[in-house]
Each structure stands twice: as C-alpha cells, then as structure tokens.
Amino acid sequence: MEESHKGLRWAVLIVPAIALLLAIVGMARAQAVESDVPETSVVPSEEGAAAAPRHPAAHAAATAGALKFDLEPAQALVKITHETPVFVEPANTSKIWEKTQVGKFIDVTGSTHYFLQVKLKNGRVGYIDPAAVELVRPTDKIFTLTSDAAVLERPNKWSKKLSEVHKGHQVHVVGVALNYTRIRMKSGLEGFIPMAAME
User: Fold this and answer.
1) Total structural domains in the chain?
2) pTM above 0.85, yes or no
3) Half-sphere exposure of residue 88: CA atoms within 13 angstroms, side-chain side
4) Please, what's the b/e burial string for 164-184 (b: 16 or more CB within 10 A of its CB; e: otherwise)?
C-alpha cells in the first residue's frame, strides 16, 4: 500500500516536469526558426509588400538623393560663349553628358548655387558653368520698384548682398538675366534684383 502511494507521488511530480520540459523545447525551436531570418530582411505584412517598412539605410539614401541640392527655377535661352561640359549633376566631379558648342543656344531651366540647370535637345537635364554663357542681355530702361529688394552680386538667391533698394524708388535697369534684372545705382554700383520687385 505504501509502495503504491510512493509511485503515485512520483507520477504527480514527473508528469508536470515532463510537460514543462516539452514546453521549453517548443519555445527553443520557435526561437531558432525566428533567428534564421536575417535582421536586415523586410518581411511583407499581410496587407501586401507596399505596406512593408523600408530598411533605414535605404530610406536615408533616398532622402539624401532627393535633397542633394536646392534649385531656383528659371526660364531663358542663352548663347554659349565658351566650350564647357554639361554635367549630369551640379558638381565638377560629376559624369558628363556632352560638351557644348560655342555660338549655339541652350535652354536654361534653373540655377543652383554654382551651376545653371539646362535642358538638352535630347530631353536630358544637365548642369553647366554660368561663366560659359552670355547670361545677361543688355537693356536700358527705368522701372519703379513695387517692393523692397536686396541688390545681389549674381543673378541667384544664394549670391552675396551688395545693397538694398526700396519700394517706390526708380531703378535704372541695364540688363536681364534669368528671373533677375541688372540695375545700376546712382553710386555706379551694379547688381541684380528679382524681376518680381518691379512694375
């Protein structure tokens, strides 16, 4: 009788221990399967691949590509005065689409800090040195300012500010370049102001 009680006690202790051991083995197996998936993998959600999160490094690279440089839109047809490369990107170290020919005209679609953005006849967009084109077309007119404006060294928004002109005053315009006019002040100083600042 005592022997059967001992056997029963052992059974009560052993069965839960076996169940616990099986549970631990099952968990270990599940973890092993999960760890087989590399940490950098992106597994699509049930809603489809479009909803899958992007890898952080890929997202950072895409963002950097989109914010490489700032562009000021413009529209002008300018004459090429010096042969110059048309770069793929606004940098001297960039690949080159082609070289320009002196005397030809090129379509300018904007400007960066140091380059002009151009559209080539084949539809490609490239970048050239502003010094290689006849950027300013001469003119001789008087305009009244409709708003205050900074007088800039070059015809782009990143240029050094030389002076300032004020709303209501008349300015002597001696040239036109992209979205800017070159003005000559009474002091003899010449610089560029946005066309939007004039009547």
Assistant:
1) 2
2) no
3) 5
4) ebeeeeebebebbbbbbbbbe
